[in-house]
Design goal:
Rossmann fold, 11 strands, five-stranded parallel sheet, single chain, 12 helices, alpha/beta, four-stranded parallel sheet
């Protein structure tokens, strides 16, 4: 049994209030080419399956198998899945665990205390940061060449987007569940710009980041309304706003563009397809 498993038992006893020895696992350094990688984050799932394939993954998240949210559902089906708990992860004897900075925080906290070989991914806010993250993770798993290939393909597809015609650009606002929009300084804003749109979020009342009331969106006067599309998604209060009658009525006068959620939920190579679809929608506008 690895020391990290003993550490898990000690930590669980501490959480339960029982006795535990004052023992800490030594910091673990992943090998140059980890062979038993565990992901605790959907965005990590997508990058890892592209970089190392199913063979070197001991587990990915359960979300990776859902084609509504994931762009890697098919290969993910060949990998065991987890729900983001340390109790699931440590018995797998991982030599690298990849998590997201804002997800599975309880598990990450416990894994950190136990000295697990943990790598946390941040949330890139630009295409350049997406490229840096892909390269960094590729180095961590011993696949720098694959990382460079993914980055090269992403950047070449973005560079190949059709240029916007001269003159004012059509305005667009991205509306996500609960009325969240993304303004300047975000990855979504850069993708809109590369696709030939002007992001109208900065002009809307109450600022360009966070949730906006439906009235502000309806009265904003955008040329295009871009909404997340997740076919067959289960009903939710967060998604109910996207089906509001006011938005349906707005669709008769404002161009509505549905973009599959899986294409830009995660900042990975798939954002190229999101930008391509946005550019196609801009070109098709009357």
């Amino acid at each position: 049994m690895r020391p990290i498993r003993l550490g898990l038992a000690a930590a669980l006893l501490l959480i339960a209030g029982g006795p535990a020895a004052a023992w800490e696992a030594p910091p673990a350094k992943p090998p140059s080419k980890p062979q038993r990688i565990v992901s605790l984050n959907l965005c990590a799932d997508e990058l890892l399956l592209r970089l190392v394939g199913p063979e070197r993954l001991a587990a990915v998240t359960w979300l990776a198998r859902d084609p509504r949210a994931s762009t890697v559902a098919e290969p993910a089906a060949r990998v065991p899945f987890n729900h983001g708990t340390a109790e699931e992860i440590l018995p797998l004897d991982p030599d690298l665990i990849v998590a997201g900075r804002y997800t599975t925080r309880v598990a990450v906290g416990l894994l950190t205390r136990l000295g697990a070989p943990l790598l946390e991914l941040d949330v890139p806010q630009s295409v350049a940061e997406v490229a840096d993250q892909i390269r960094g993770l590729a180095r961590a798993v011993g696949e720098p060449d694959r990382g460079e290939a993914l980055v090269a393909d992403l950047l070449s597809r973005l560079d190949a987007l059709p240029p916007a015609p001269p003159g004012p650009r059509p305005t667009a606002v991205v509306l996500r569940p609960n009325g969240f929009v993304a303004g300047s300084g975000s990855l979504v804003d850069e993708l809109l710009s590369r696709a030939g749109f002007e992001n109208m979020a900065d002009r809307l009342p109450l600022g360009s980041q966070g949730a906006l009331p439906l009235e502000a969106i309806v009265l904003g006067g955008a040329d295009a309304l871009i909404v997340d599309a997740a076919p067959d998604a289960p009903p939710s209060l967060a998604g109910a706003l996207l089906h509001h009658p006011a938005l349906k009525a707005l669709g008769r006068t404002v161009r509505t563009v549905s973009l599959p959620t899986r294409l830009w939920t995660c900042p990975g190579p798939q954002i190229a397809e999101a930008a391509e679809r946005l550019a196609a929608a801009r070109e098709a506008a009357p």
